[in-house]
Design brief:
Elements: E1 3-6, E2 9-12, H1 23-26, E3 30-32, E4 35-38, E5 41-42, H2 45-58, H3 67-80, E6 85-92, E7 106-113, H4 119-124, E8 126-131, H5 146-150, E9 160-163, E10 176-181, E11 184-187, H6 197-208, E12 212-215, E13 228-233, E14 237-244, E15 247-248, H7 256-267
Parallel strand pairs: 8-9, 8-14, 11-12
Antiparallel strand pairs: 1-2, 1-7, 3-6, 4-5, 4-6, 6-7, 10-11, 10-13, 13-14, 14-15
Helix pairs in contact: 6-7
């Protein structure tokens, strides 16, 4: 079962339509979020919607509804879904562009069955493909993911591409990236990457565990000596990374720190449910 909220109405996803004049179609102008539910409760709903509002503002797109009203729509949609789902609110550029801004934006929200990664992704780990590039406007969660998909053609066994401009690792195509090296958990600073909600949870848990944390861009040159690596996201949670390009990470198997953080997150997830 899939639903779409649009123009004040819930309807089957396949019946939802946008005019071809919307800038999300004409020029790829739009921002969105992906919010997973656990036990029919959304994970970090407020932080997700606050990030959606920041993304819209940074893209000069007018917020079509206040955050609290969007939150109410999300909760109403959840009540109509029979199981846990993935919630994806989109704000489009609309049909009007005036003085460098998009004042006539549209909101639509998709409610679909959530598709978690296969069990072997967690038991075996994944390979990331490093590329010399990065996302445009990293702090904005825009709909522009073309580079992340076209990059797969270079290597079919890659789970995602990994942005590594000038040898600095920032983030993966759809995830935050962490490197565990020399007893320290390293991840790129918010000045370089999207403020991931699962990133925030993992940093909070690592701090509570007394782990040493550095917010800086890990380097490709550090990979050979690193013990572990993993990526995080609202749907994928914590995915072990065992290889980056041709470089094996640590033992080549999911490591104990990655497993511990993932287990702890699942055990304590109620702390972040709304």
């Amino acid at each position: 079962m899939s639903l779409c909220y649009m123009n004040g109405t819930f309807l089957p996803k396949e019946k939802a339509m946008l005019p071809v004049s919307d800038y999300i179609i004409l020029r790829g102008v739009g921002v969105f979020e992906s919010i997973s539910t656990f036990r029919k409760r959304p994970l970090m709903l407020t932080p997700h919607l606050e990030r959606l509002a920041r993304s819209a503002e940074s893209a000069s797109i007018t917020l079509p509804l206040p955050i609290e009203e969007i939150k109410a729509v999300v909760q109403e949609g959840l009540s109509r879904m029979p199981e846990d789902c993935l919630i994806r609110p989109y704000i489009t550029g609309g049909d009007v562009f005036i003085s460098g801004a998009f004042p006539a934006s549209r909101l639509f929200i998709l409610f679909e069955k959530v598709q978690k990664p296969a069990p072997e992704v967690y038991s075996n780990g994944v390979l990331l493909l490093p590329v010399d590039g990065g996302r445009h406007i990293p702090g904005v969660k825009s709909i522009d993911y073309m580079f992340s998909y076209s990059g797969y053609a270079k290597r079919g066994d890659a789970y995602e591409i990994l942005y590594c401009p000038d040898g600095e690792i920032t983030e993966a195509a759809h995830s935050s990236f962490f490197l565990y090296t020399g007893g320290t958990l390293v991840t790129a600073p918010l000045s370089r990457v999207l403020k991931g909600t699962m990133r925030d949870i993992i940093l909070q848990l690592a701090s509570e565990k007394g782990m040493k944390i550095e917010e800086r861009c890990p380097l490709l040159s550090e990979l050979a000596a690193a013990e572990e690596a993993f990526i995080t996201g609202s749907v994928k949670e914590v995915v072990p990374v065992v290889k980056i390009g041709d470089q094996v990470i640590g033992s080549g198997e999911p490591g104990p720190v990655t497993k511990m953080l993932h287990y702890t997150m699942l055990e304590e997830i109620v702390r972040w449910l709304e």
